[in-house]
Amino acid sequence: VAYIHCEDVFGIVGENFTFPVEIDQKIVELTWKKNKDKVAEWEGQKTYFSPLLNRSVLMENGSLTIFDLNKSDAGAYELHYWDSVKDHYLNFKLVVLDPLPEPKISCNTSGGNLVLNCIADFQGPLSYTWKLTDDPHSYQSQELSIPLENVDPTRKAACVIKFSRTAMSSEISLIQCHP
Fold it and tell me: 9, 40, 90, 100: least buried by Cβ within 10 Å?
């Protein structure tokens, strides 16, 4: 019986991307296909085919890394491997997203608080972190609220957005916000 697994995975244009594969049994031979065409195989030795020739590396554990990802790398990938007993199939749908934008920061006052908002137009789920000058804490949220009496206009606030291994940040001086 073949074991089939399917997963959506996301990469960013220009990043290196590794399919999340960790096979712990002995692999006798394996083949990676993209949209049914062979892109890499290992049968005693590694062989690569276009479009991944010279821009990918296959590891003994079955994982495949693509360097300098581009939009045309998106598609359906299948890893087929044989462990000398049975065939295994792992299927991935690779979605390639645009590079991260620089986040935009807006601020307004609401109910005695200064409210900072971090906005980024991006297709994937982002993590948001706020850092304030001289504050060891970081705040994991898209919005940051500071009581007006604690607002020091000489401080700066930075918002960092992160997706996969890529991060972008923007900074604002609180004096720009202070009413």
Answer: 9
Among 48, 49, 35, 52, residue whose Cα is nearest residue 93: 35
Give all domains of the chain, ordered by start, each with its CATH number.
6-97 (2.60.40.10), 104-177 (2.60.40)
Tokens of 87: 């065939």
100 or 60: which leads in pLDDT:
100
Q: Which two tokens stand for residue 179?
A: 């009413």
pTM value is 0.73
> CA angle, 105 as apex, 101 and 108 as ends, to 5°?
160
pLDDT at 6: 85
| 34, β-bridge pairs | 37, 77
Q: Where are the beta strands (DSSP E) in the chain?
A: 3-12, 17-18, 29-34, 37-42, 46-48, 56-58, 64-66, 75-82, 87-97, 104-110, 113-119, 127-132, 138-139, 143-147, 156-163, 166-173
pLDDT in tens, 7-64: 899 999 999 999 999 888 888 899 999 999 999 999 989 999 999 999 999 998 899 9
